[in-house]
Design a protein that fits this description.
Chain B: It holds the Pfam family Mn_catalase. The complex is a heterodimer of chains A (86) and B (200). Chain A is mainly alpha-helical. Chain A has two helices and no strands. Classes of the chains: A mainly alpha (86), B mainly alpha (200).
Chain lengths: 86, 200
């Protein structure tokens, strides 16, 4: 796997983590304006990374399969494999 | 419903085969305080929660536990990658191997298969949320025990990530319990089941 793909995947994992943390916090603090602003700020970064990753390296969700001529979703390596993480 | 994201929550890239360690870590997949039990506990308990915020907490933490099932499975799978026949008996992996080869099957560290008998869904929000707080502590201490036994930094990094998540979940469940208790009838001094008992 290319190092460009790994670098982008790492950034996406970091952005996903920040969003997921904000989600859990907001579940029990839904009126926290600062947390909600943080969520929206992180969401912008996540969306940009998500778009860049799926355009360059294929779908993250089955519904994202962009190609009209090939079913890229079923391509390996899958996330739990060593090769998908290096 | 759910959709699968084709990425791990945290990278797992283990270079060195170590079946003895796989046999220990697999308990966090199928053991009494493992991620499979956690996911099923929280996702099952949602249905009797009276408070919408608490339903959100159980849904989102339960979903995160599904991603942790995948991480623990990835660790176990990569620790038995390229396993040589002469290494099978190391650390007692041979007993697992004879039933499952190097497939991933949810068992505890001594080989007992996953069972829902290790958790409850009582239909009582106060009882369930107390169990959830205990469950997060038990999962955290199991990861601490694993960290005492694991030297390989490739293994320790994802385990430390999973351990840290238990702390955050404990915090959120504490808030969920407080939210539930605050919305009880003020005469419900002994916090009996707010989902089932009706009181005028």
């Amino acid at each position: 796997m290319s190092s460009d793909k790994q670098k982008l995947l790492r950034k996406l994992q970091v952005a996903d983590f920040a969003l997921s943390e904000a989600v859990l916090f907001l579940d029990t603090h839904p009126s926290d304006e600062q947390a909600l602003a943080y969520f929206h700020k992180q969401r912008e970064g996540y969306d940009a990374l998500y778009r860049e990753y799926t355009e360059k390296f294929g779908p993250l969700r089955a519904f994202d399969n962009r190609s009209k001529t090939r079913w890229e979703w079923a391509d390996g390596p899958w996330p739990w494999e060593y090769e998908a993480n290096v | 419903m759910w959709q699968y994201d084709k990425k791990l929550a945290f990278p797992v890239k283990i270079k060195c085969t170590n079946p003895a360690l796989a046999k220990l870590i697999i308990t966090q997949l199928g053991g009494p305080d493992g991620e499979a039990g956690a996911a099923l506990r929280y996702l099952s308990q949602r249905y009797s929660m009276p408070n919408a915020k608490v339903k959100a907490v159980l849904t989102d933490i339960g979903t995160e536990e599904l991603a942790h099932i995948e991480m623990v499975s990835a660790i176990v799978s990569q620790l038995t990658r390229n396993l040589k026949v002469e290494d099978l008996a190391k650390g007692g992996f041979d007993a697992y191997y004879v039933d499952h080869t190097t497939g991933v099957y949810p068992v505890d560290a001594t080989g007992n298969p996953f069972t829902a008998a290790t958790f409850q869904s009582t239909g009582d929000p106060i009882a369930d949320l107390h169990e959830d707080l205990a469950a997060e502590q038990k999962a955290r201490l199991t990861y601490d025990n694993i960290l005492r036994l694991a030297d390989d930094p490739d293994v320790r990094e994802p385990i430390k990530f999973l351990r840290a998540r238990e702390l955050v979940h404990f915090q959120r469940f504490g808030e969920a319990l407080r939210i539930t208790q605050e919305s009880l009838d003020s005469k419900n001094f002994y916090a009996y089941n707010p989902a089932f008992d009706k009181r005028k």
